[in-house]
Design goal:
The chain is an alpha/beta fold. The protein has a single domain, classed as FAD/NAD(P)-binding domain (3-Layer(bba) Sandwich). It is built from 15 helices and 18 strands. The protein starts with a strand and ends with a helix. About 45% of the residues are buried. This is 2-polyprenyl-6-methoxyphenol hydroxylase-like FAD-dependent oxidoreductase.
């Protein structure tokens, strides 16, 4: 049967999730990942109640994810003297179920490693579509041809660049950068999973977080686009130190410790805007590569729902990948609206002192509660089709 072989670029969350479902439906799947191995640790990601947890349940990994869940971390905003100003509840930032990104990737990998081909330490360098497939060239391995290719390789997707065009055509910089450094407290498996607190301090256009769920340290600051290498952690540390050199509170001590921390990651707060067209020819995009919105809070759930829908539609359409892609575009264009046009930067790091005071007031107001309810409703605004019959038909 045609369309049996699928190459997925990216082995973080979206890629292995798609690999799981495609393999279950009888496809032969290869996952290529630029990193030499799975990335451990990482920041915390979360799922909302309802649809997100149902997908985990259908994958058979809900219990495994729950077993590795983090605790709940409230983010306490304080002034320069550590006086509490406002609290961002961990029940909001952590959703119904929170887990470190690396732990989730490990769960997904364990579900698929025995039946899916994983190629670490390599990446796609060229794509050429033919009448019968996609000829793929790699940085290290020999070229191969696949029936379909899926880019699940993040907001800076190489597959998107090769198949659709330059990043600048699809990724919009939202005026802020963020940096996470050091492992979250929850990376310590011996730590009790209970409620904890992280502390955040603002000056106009900047926020520094000491502790918390995301990492040992977190920084956010307003900035035009910067020219730096995302693989050069020394350069990233220099950028953070320069941006926060004039900030008091705990920041001088945090910057001193920054050189000793591992897992330093600096990136822009950006949004991918594809206008609802997530496929081209035999190539499809999934997860942050196509509906990413940095720190918006829905990315991981979108990735898992998107993987479920894409695989299910491919199984239902048998050899007609064009029909499957049309259905995937239609369903996910509507659902991906939950990522919206929101920008976490101005909310967490307002550019004025008045903006900071207004944000603190908002966190304690009824309006914030209404926003939480809207987010929960939007996260469940999709019908999960039961694709199990498609799996039986392909078996």
């Amino acid at each position: 049967m045609p369309n049996q072989t699928v190459l997925i670029s990216g082995a973080s969350i979206a890629g292995p999730a798609l690999a799981y479902w495609l393999n279950r439906y009888g496809f032969a799947v290869t996952v290529v990942e630029r990193a030499a191995a799975l990335r451990p640790g990482g920041q915390a990601v979360d799922f909302k109640d309802g649809v997100h947890l149902e997908v985990l349940k259908r994958m058979g990994i809900l219990d495994a994810v729950r077993a590795r869940r983090t605790g709940t971390t409230d983010l306490v905003f304080v002034d320069a003297d550590d006086h509490e100003l406002a609290v961002l509840s961990g029940d909001f930032t952590g959703g119904a179920l929170e887990i470190l990104r690396g732990d989730l990737a490990a769960v997904l990998y364990e579900q698929t490693r025995g039946t899916v081909e994983y190629v670490f330490g390599d990446t796609v360098t060229a794509l050429r579509e033919t009448e019968s497939g996609v000829h793929v060239e790699f940085e290290s391995a020999a070229a191969r041809t696949f029936d379909l290719v899926v880019g699940a390789d993040g907001i800076h997707s190489r597959v998107r660049r090769l198949a659709f065009g330059p990043e600048s055509d699809f990724v919009t910089h939202l005026g802020y950068y963020y940096c996470v450094a050091g492992a979250s407290r929850w990376a310590d498996k011996s730590a009790p999973r209970e409620r904890a607190e992280g502390y955040a301090h603002n000056v106009p256009g900047k926020m520094a977080v000491d502790g918390g769920a995301k990492a040992q340290q977190m920084y956010m600051f307003a900035s035009p686009e910067l020219d730096y290498s995302r693989t050069d952690t020394s350069a990233q540390r220099r950028i953070v130190r320069a941006a926060f050199a004039d900030v008091g509170w705990h920041v001088p001590r945090m910057l001193t410790e920054l050189d000793e921390l591992d897992e330093v990651y600096l990136d822009s707060i950006s949004q991918v805007r594809m206008n609802g067209t997530y496929t081209r020819g035999r190539v499809a995009l999934l997860g942050d590569a196509v509906y990413g919105n940095t720190l918006a809070g829905f990315g991981t759930g979108l990735a898992l729902v998107g993987a479920y829908v894409l695989a299910g539609e491919l199984a239902s359409a048998a050899s007609d990948h064009e029909a499957a892609y049309r259905a995937y575009n239609r369903i996910m264009k509507r659902y991906a609206k939950i990522a919206g046009n929101s920008n976490t930067g101005p909310f967490l790091a307002p550019k004025t002192a008045i903006g900071i005071k207004a944000r603190n007031w908002f966190l304690g107001s009824r309006l914030f509660g209404l926003m939480l309810k809207y987010g929960d409703k939007a996260a469940n605004d999709v019908d999960l089709v039961d694709y199990s019959r498609s799996a039986r038909n392909r078996a």
